[in-house]
Structure prediction request, 256 residues.
Amino acid sequence: MDRVRDKVVLVTGAGSGIGRAAARLLAAEGATVIVTGVNRAGGLETVQQIAGPNSGGRARFAEQDTSREADWQRVIDDILAREGRLDGLVNNAGIAGPFPSTFESETLEQWRRILAVNVEGVFLGCKYGVPALRASGGGSIVNLSSLAAFLGTPDLAAYGASKGAVRQFTKTVAIDCARKSYKVRCNSVHPGVILTPMGEGILPSEKARERTRQRIPIGDFGAPDDIAWGILYLISDESRFVTGAELVIDGGMNAI
Ligand SMILES: NC(=O)c1ccc[n+]([C@@H]2O[C@H](COP(=O)([O-])OP(=O)(O)OC[C@H]3O[C@@H](n4cnc5c(N)ncnc54)[C@H](O)[C@@H]3O)[C@@H](O)[C@H]2O)c1
Prediction:
């Protein structure tokens, strides 16, 4: 019940899928959660699920496009003014773009948009999050990368490149913060195929879904909560000695 008791945690893109599951679990374990994203209706629904009349958790919504620097400044300033501290940051917001998108079919505009959200969004999160975490005595950042960071992704060219960048950049932030004694940890989480709006978008037919399911050693897709438990561990003090690590949660796909 109290694994992240009284921590203030910002979860981006928490209006659906993995972000919502992480926000709910963190709140259930005692955190105050700042739910942000471009999906206002979804974000408000997440807050309702956490802090509604029969729920008893603590959460509020803030509109935020993670690819916009001004949004990061506003959101972090607001948290420091209202909650007075920041202990955890989950850089979860992400987009995959149209499916399939090969390196030949991808437009430059689409490539740039995917990298703006998935890579620049994470860069800005760390740039503006770290000073706030430091000012609060230290904290933990979790960056959502993907199984795609380890493999070629011919049907998701820009997406795979973006998640490879997140995997590498996470280690840079982790080591820089550790060497400077900032007391800020930074780790990446690598989901396999998870049934969320994004996951379903890349499995357009029942046939495609079945074919993919058969490639998963554990024999089924993951659920958003399977990822949220990993995020909870990395945000909590249970992982105090863990930084620069890659937490792969994929039903075994990366092991074959
Ligand atoms: N579902 C999977 O199979 C899978 C696998 C590997 C990695 N991931 C990663 O997990 C994270 C969450 O994905 P999901 O599966 O829950 O997908 P999702 O589409 O349900 O959630 C993504 C959320 O990010 C929000 N978002 C998009 N652009 C944004 C922006 N510019 N600013 C703020 N919010 C924005 C969306 O509104 C949405 O709520 C993503 O980073 C994704 O790449 C997902």
Q: What stands out?
A: Strands lie at 8-11, 32-37, 58-63, 88-91, 139-144, 184-191, 246-249. The CA atoms of residues 42 and 197 lie 12 Å apart. The chain has a mean pLDDT of 97. Residues 12-13, 15-19, 37-39, 42, 64-67, 92-95, 117, 144, 146, 191, 193-194, 196-199 surround nicotinamide-adenine-dinucleotide (CB under 6 Å).
